[in-house]
Each structure stands twice: as structure tokens, then as C-alpha cells.
Amino acid sequence: QVQLVESGGGLVQPGGSLRLACVASGSIFSASALGWYRQAPGKQRELVAGISVGSSTNYADSVKGRFTISRDNAKKTVYLQMNSLKPEDTAVYYCNLRAGIIEHWGQGTQVTVSS
């Protein structure tokens, strides 16, 4: 059984930074693709950033150059470093793990960018 627990969300001013972390339980972390998604009120959940088993990364156009996804297999943790935050980045951020047909989601962490 895999559980994902996110942390690091909060309230930040425009231009500020946050680092989200997602810690996984279970034994499939290193063999899993990982991603961060977000969902703003009234909008569909969207992919923010993904990282493959081999640590190749991909980003939504809206966050390229501002966000960085990384993984630490020894700690079973995936991170999302968010810089130059904008009000439009406000959303609940979810961690996602996929290994073959297995997929798991975290409970989400709120990020609010406001002055």
C-alpha cells in the first residue's frame, strides 16, 4: 500500500518562494514516475511538473523557468521548488505517483499567493 503525504504549502506574497515535499510509503517509489498537479477553484486539475524514473522532467508552460521538480529516492520524497510565485499559482497542489497501472494521489496542500 502506498501513501503520499504532502507538506510545505501556505500563504506567500507575490514574488515569493515555497518548496513542497511529498513523502511516500511503500517500496515502489524508485520505480515510479512522479508528478505535481494543481487544482484551482472552478478549474480542472492540471499537471504542473513531472519527473520520470530516470529523472527526466517536464513542466507546464505557465511554470517553466519558475518551478523545479526533483526526487530523492533514498528519502522517497519528491519536491517542487516554486519561485517567483504569482497569484494565478494559487491552488491545491497534489502529489501523484504512477508505476504501470498503479496510481496514487496525496491529499493535497493549499498554496495561496496573495498580498
Can you tell me the overall shape? globular
> Which whole number gives the mean pLDDT?
96
Which residues form runs of ≥5 with pLDDT under 50? none
Count of beta strands: 11
Q: Largest sheet, if any?
A: 7 strands, mixed
Summarize this, please?
With 115 residues, the protein is mainly β. 0% of the residues lie in helices and 52% in strands.
Structure description:
The chain is mainly β and 115 residues long. Helices cover 0% and strands 52% of the residues. The chain has strands spanning 4-7, 10-12, 18-24, 33-39, 46-51, 57-59, 67-72, 77-82, 91-99, 102-105, 109-113. The strands form 2 sheets. Strands 2, 4, 5, 6, 9, 10 and 11 form a 7-stranded mixed sheet that branches. A 4-stranded antiparallel sheet has the order 1-3-8-7, with no helix packed on it.
Features:
single chain, 115 residues, mainly beta, four-stranded antiparallel beta sheet, 0% helix, globular
